Please model this.
Amino acid sequence: NHMTTAQSDLGQQDASVRDFLGNVAERAAASISHKLHPMIEQYAQLFKNGARTPVLRRPDDYGMDYEEAFFPSADGIPLEAWLIPADSDKLLIVNHPMTCNRYGFPGHLPPWNTMFGGFEVNFLPELKHLHEAGYNILTYDLRNCGLSGEANGNTSGLGLLECRDVLGSIRYARSRKDLASMTTGLYSRCMGGNSTIIAMAKW
Model:
């Protein structure tokens, strides 16, 4: 039964998912030569535990009005978002890669400058282009990221757990009278993309 399967994915199997992800990370680290071990260990722990980073910039830094928004994931984790309104009936719901948040990634600052080349990733200029093209934008922090709530022992699910956040974002948009009837697209990257694809497959 599809509904029974979907309902059973809202927390009952979390311990086994966390164990699986932890075992994968440990096996990946163990399979690499000792010479590369410190680097691989860093990445294995990153994939296992994620890395919460601060939200350094906001839409009004780029001339966009916005509203702070709050909604639960499908399993009740509190998520934080920005709603950037536009004069149209088009809505983009945007999430982000692992280690990032709705703003981007502060890779130009310590301690995050030791990861991924030491440069900043800033999504806001891109969001401004989309906004100027006429899109309303709902962009949110996935669980264990940015300002959203901690969940699942702070384990990154690489999309297997974060798919519930995607479902929560869609439910939130449909619950608002000003957004419910809009033509809606999901704009996702990397772990956010995994999360969206898994959510589409499950629900």
Notes: The first strand starts at residue 67 and ends at 72. Helices lie at 2-7, 14-30, 37-49, 124-132, 163-175, 190-202. The radius of gyration is 18 Å. The chain has a mean pLDDT of 88.
